[in-house]
Amino acid sequence: MLDALSTSLNGQSVLGFLIYIAVAAILFGLFQLAYTRLTPHKEFALIRDGNVAAAVALGGALIGFALPASNVIAYSVNVLDAVVWAVIAAAVQLLAFTVTSLVLKDLSARISRGELAAAIYAASVSISVGFLNSACMTPST
């Protein structure tokens, strides 16, 4: 038991974990920043005011990014590879919001008004795109 533990918790493994978790946290934060800048509504102000629709829509986008980002981290050959593919995942997620805004007129205003139906649709699109994006970023070799 101790042999297995010392093998899996060696210095190189722990350092690798620390590097990847730090990079993942930075990428997650940068995606959240980019997403909240792209959307016309102010997610954090709305969430602080108790707007559930804003929390649902933002939460869906964050999950939609985290799905492919976690996949690329798991399958990347190095940190740079993970970063490049996570940036692609973020771009796809931002595009998904833009397209959803075109399909569902006044999406941002609806979320600002607290309309859960619009927020659930936006979150569902974000999560669905995240799943598809994640599947497309799995190595095929």
Quick take:
The protein is an all-alpha fold and 141 residues long.
Task: Name the descriptors.
mainly alpha; about 0% strand
N-end to C-end Cα span: 34 Å
State the low-pLDDT regions, or none.
Answer: none
Label the structural class: mainly alpha
What do the pLDDT scores average to? 94
Written account of the structure:
With 141 residues, the protein is mainly α. The chain has one domain. Helices cover 83% and strands 0% of the residues. The chain has seven helices and no strands. The protein has helices spanning 2-8, 11-38, 43-48, 52-75, 79-103, 107-112, 116-136. α4 (52-75) packs antiparallel against α5, α4 (52-75) packs parallel to α7 and α5 (79-103) packs antiparallel against α7. The protein is elongated and about 55 Å long. The two termini are 34 Å apart.
Which helices and strands occur, and which strands form pairs?
Layout: H1 2-8, H2 11-38, H3 43-48, H4 52-75, H5 79-103, H6 107-112, H7 116-136
Helix pairs in contact: 2-4, 2-5, 4-5, 4-7, 5-7
